[in-house]
Design brief:
This protein has about 350 residues and is α/β, with parallel strands linked by helices. It has 15 helices and 10 strands. An 8-stranded parallel beta barrel has the order 3-4-5-6-7-8-9-10, surrounded by 5 helices. It has a two-stranded antiparallel ribbon with strand order 1-2. The protein binds iron/sulfur cluster (2 copies).
Length: about 350
């Protein structure tokens, strides 16, 4: 296992971080596989990863990741506290709510969190989070009091991560990226504002879907070829811990280009050549990169989830595209994707699959 600097925090973290969603017990809709681990088994899997050099464990407040935070606390109690880095998070945007959430998390963990993130910051919540008296201010106060060591912003949106990168109150960022959705990582690589911030990357396996198409060492090696601190991998079994923590033993050094990734996926469906760089914007409110991602996830194996999400708005999005005279999004896309045509393709796919499954 190799270790990297976590930005300017002074911490060194393992290149592979342990994502704790799969160790939970309970019903959490984001979970791709339910292992339903008992506390004993969860501790054993976490311990196995530790024995292979893992020192970063990422969780979220109960009940966002079920009981995972409690299990991580039990695990931490068996170790000298400074042997692992605990990163935790909660989806509260108001300062008072965040303050209480962090105290609850520390009680669940039985210790401090090394980094605490405002979780899932999106365009609807960012102004509150970054604003006076918002969640970020609360994290700064908790840092001064010693309840946490460093502050963090976690988001799937490039512009929000960039805002975090420019904000002196933020120590660490958490974003998503993988061989397919790498546009955001490409932008981070060339943006100097990210220098000095720790960066954890989640969705390396795209919610468990990509290992059906690519070896895990290729998935991990690609993400770690970017200037990131740590790739977070959700782990629920000893076998998964072995595959992730020992990835380098099987890694040839080959990092596929985006076009090579598409050509693999084209054998299984018709992916949209979108790397999710998030440079496009629709004045009518369609979140283009999210629609395209849901389409890719549908044919990669998460069809039920994707159809449910797409059904909520794809008809309207396609209708808006048909009526759109200026089509400003086209000029913003460096990949020259015919966005309205792809929107139509997604709408037809959803209609067809919904008929077949009803
Ligand atoms: S073509 Fe469609 S996605 Fe593009 S700006 Fe117009 S409505 Fe929005
Ligand atoms: S559609 Fe184009 S601009 Fe928009 S996220 Fe995809 S690649 Fe980037």
């Amino acid at each position: 296992m190799r270790y990297r600097r976590l930005g300017n925090t002074g911490l060194a973290v393992s290149e592979i971080g342990f994502g704790t969603i799969p160790i939970l017990q309970g019903s959490v809709p984001v979970l791709p596989d339910y292992f339903n681990l008992s506390e004993e088994d969860a501790l054993s899997v976490m311990g196995h990863a530790f024995s292979l050099g893992c020192n970063l464990y990422d969780t979220a407040i109960v009940p966002e990741y079920g009981d995972a935070e409690l299990k991580l606390g039990k695990f931490a109690a068996h170790l000298e506290r400074n042997r692992i880095v605990i990163t935790d998070k909660a989806r509260f945007y108001d300062g008072n709510e965040m303050y209480q959430a962090v105290l609850a998390s520390c009680e669940n963990l039985g210790t401090w969190a090394d980094v605490y993130f405002v979780h899932q910051v999106d365009p609807g919540s960012e102004d509150e989070v970054f604003g006076k008296g918002g969640a970020l201010d609360a994290l700064v106060e908790l840092k001064q009091q010693g309840s946490i060591r460093f502050t963090g912003i976690a988001s799937h949106y490039y512009d929000i991560l960039l805002r975090g990168a420019a904000d002196r109150r933020v120590d660490v960022l958490q974003g998503s990226g993988n061989v397919l959705e790498r546009g955001m990582l490409d932008r981070i690589r060339t943006e100097p504002l990210f220098t000095g911030k720790g960066l954890l990357v989640n969705k390396v396996y795209a919610a468990g879907l990509l290992p059906a198409f690519f070896p895990v060492e290729t998935l991990i090696g690609t993400v770690l070829s970017y200037p990131v601190s740590c790739a977070l991998i959700g782990i629920g079994t000893v076998k998964q811990a072995e595959a992730a923590m020992r990835w380098e033993e099987n890694f040839s050094g080959f990092v596929p280009t985006f076009l090579q990734v598409l050509s693999v996926l084209e054998k299984h469906g018709s992916p949209i050549p979108c790397d999710r760089c998030q440079r496009c914007a629709c004045p009518h409110g369609t979140e283009i990169h999210t629609v395209f991602r849901q389409f890719q996830y549908a044919f990669m194996g998460k069809e039920y989830w994707a159809l449910r999400k797409l059904n909520l708005g794809i008809k309207d999005s396609a209708r808006l595209c048909r009526a759109c005279a200026q089509m400003p999004c086209l000029k913003m896309c460096p990949a020259n994707i015919r966005i309205p045509e792809e929107m139509e393709k997604v709408a037809s796919y959803v209609l067809q699959r919904s008929k077949n499954t009803s």
